[in-house]
Design goal:
alpha/beta, Rossmann fold, 2 domains, 7-stranded mixed sheet, 4-stranded antiparallel sheet, 9 helices, 11 strands, 29% strand, globular
Length: 277
Amino acid sequence: MIHHTKFSWNKAKFYRLKSMFVDKRITMIKMKTREWYRQWFDSPFYHRLYFDRDEKDAMACIARLINFLQPVPGSRMLDVACGRGRHSQVLAKMGFDVIGFDLSPNNIAYAKQFEAENLSFYQHDMRYPFWINYFDHAFNLFTSFGYFATKREHDDSMRTISASLKPSGIFVIDYLNVHYAEDHLVHNEIKKVFETSYEIHRWDDESHFYKRIIITDPSLKTPEEHTERVAKFSLGDFTEMLSFQNMQVLDAFGDYNLQSYDVRKTPRMIIVAKKNF
């Protein structure tokens, strides 16, 4: 009887430990899925896929935005989710005092080689407060938003941006145009960048766009895989989010030439907003 009780206790302990292990693995998988961007944005294959694309258009867009905004010389600029700092560098070369931050340690380590008297980079998560009432302008470019799992996390990010701006400060966010993207979704694609091959599968549901990317490269023993998840935020959604953080939409453009935004016809949604007093 004693041996049977001991066996039962050990068996129960085993199943408890097994359950704890399974729960921990499920939690880790959920966290990896929720925060897919941490690993993907740190990958050199991410930059190889995206940052050579539309480079000239993106740089030209900065020049057009500055021409439209007419900031005072020497204005303080914040580049939110700056990546490797390509937009920050352009702004700094124009004579502005620029700070860029990004979640990815590798991105910031790379960007720091370009630091100058008027250009600095920091590793930082946009969901948490940054400098307060300091910047004249803030930029979030190239769909560097919409990745988080909850509305609260997106609201926290908007709060960080609003709080960083001085009263009457200007915020520019460059996002995909949801309705245009739905109408022009390419479901399957193979893209070659030098020796790297990207097998891309796209789909969507009511609230998000998804992109599964399978990477093969001579440097990889097995294919590397990532799945992007981006929220379907409309102009109305952004107007509400911005208003909640004391910012008002002033204008919206539909492409990098700053043509007027059209809900169906333009590929981008570039919003200009102003922080109220």
